[in-house]
Amino acid sequence: MLIAFFLRYLSYFLEPMKKGNIILKYTNFTLNYNVQDHAAVNWHYRLSNYTKKGVPRPKEFYLDPKLDLEFQQKSTKSYHCGTTNSSKLFYYNYNTFSERQSTQNTQSPNFGSNYFGNCNGDLYDRGHLVPSTHMNKNVGSRHESHYMTNILPQISTLNRGIWLETEQITGHFAKNNSVEVFGGVIFNDTGNDHFLESHGVKTPEYFYKIIKIGGNDSFTLSWFIPNKPNLKDLSYYELSVKDINREVEYNKGEKDINREVEYNKGEKDINCEVK
C-alpha cells in the first residue's frame, strides 16, 4: 500500500493544476504553488548521500526571477508586524545562531524585532518548506531554496525546535539511504494572518511532513504539527499518513488552498485530487 500512496501523492505534482495552483519545478525540489495565495501548499524532494558539508547558505532571501511578481509575496523581509528602523533586507546571522543549534534550546535569540515578526506576542521566522541545508549540494539549488515561494510564516520556536528536528531526522537517514519527503500546510483560520499587508501571504495553521526511507523495505515517518508556540516533544505530533489525511479533510484546508485530499478507505494511502 505504501507504493500506491507515494505514486498517488507524486502524481499530484504531475497533473495539471486548477483554480490557481501551478507546479514550480526547481533543480532538486518541486512545489505545488497557489498563485492567488502566494503560497506553496505542498512540496516534494528526494535526498541521498547527505552530508552537512556543502555550499554556503545564502545570506538573504529572494523572489523567484521566473515567476511574475504579482504571484509572489510582496517582500523578502522578515515577517514583522510593527515598524522597523531600516528598509534593509534582514537575514539571520548564522554565525551567531546556527541552523544546527540544539533542539533543546527552542527559545528565540534576542536579535531584536528586525529579525522576527512580533504579533500578539508570537515571533515568526521566514520558515523554509524545503530545508536550505538539504539543498547544499550545489549553489543553484541552495539559492532556489531561499526563494520566497519556498517560505511561509512559521512560529520561531517551531522553526528552530521540532520542525528543525524533522529536518535533522531526514538528514540522518539520508546519509546511508534514499529518502523521499512530502510536505504540506493547512490554512483554516484568519486570526493569525498578520502578514497579508506586508507580504501578501496568509499564515499556516498546520505543517505536516511525511518521509519515506529506503527502497523495497521502506518505512515512513510522519508528523502533523500546529504552527503555535510552546509545543510538546516531536513524538507527540507523530501521526499516520491515514490520520494526517483525515486531519487535512477535517480542517477543511481544501477551500483555502484550492485542492481536495480524499481518503480512499480501501487503501492506507493519500488519494489526492484537484477539484
Distance between the termini: 24 Å
Q: Report the total helices.
A: 6
Alpha-carbon Rg, integer: 18 Å
Count of discrete domains: 1
The level of helicity is 10-25%
Q: Mean pLDDT, nearest integer?
A: 78
Low-confidence stretches: 14-18, 83-117, 253-275
The name of the CATH superfamily reads Extracellular Endonuclease, subunit A
Describe the largest sheet. 6 strands, antiparallel
Describe the structure.
18% of the residues lie in helices and 24% in strands. The chain contains six helices and eleven strands. The protein has helices at residues 2-14, 139-144, 156-159, 162-174, 241-250, 254-257; strands at 21-25, 29-34, 39-47, 117-119, 122-128, 151-155, 179-186, 206-213, 219-226, 260-263, 270-273. The strands form three sheets. The chain has a six-stranded antiparallel β-sheet, sandwiched between helices.
In short:
This protein has 6 helices and 11 strands. By secondary structure, it is of the alpha+beta class. The longest helix has 13 residues, at 2-14.
